[in-house]
Amino acid sequence: MKFAVQWGRNAAVPVATVEELDTVLDHITDERRPQMVNLFNPDHGDPWDEQRILQIGLGHPDRSFAYLDPDQVWAVDPTLEPASEPIWFNYGGTPTEYSTARTRIHPATARQAARDFLTTDGQRPGHIDWQPMTEQV
User: Which Pfam families match (predicted)?
Assistant: First the structure.
């Protein structure tokens, strides 16, 4: 299976294995600024046209997020208290504020969600609690 990883204003980078995915995610993390990252299957058409897409936040030392579309659910670690203030992530070249309710997972959890998404051909990662968008701030 082949997926694509896209962040900032960069073109999508193809990945087919967890090792390739980790290499790209390491590169994004090494940029040292919080980035919103898209992971999708380019064979399923336009990623913004009702295709299943996983968005994760990388680059913040302590916090991240994971959002799954079109399910419109956010990952939440119920043992992790909300951050003290919103966190800004680069969303397609635009600094975007993510609320404290949406950044309630650790970066390692977001990375594992990406690995699971890749290895299950785009299924919802099962190791995370997901909450509907309506329950978020």
Answer: Imm1
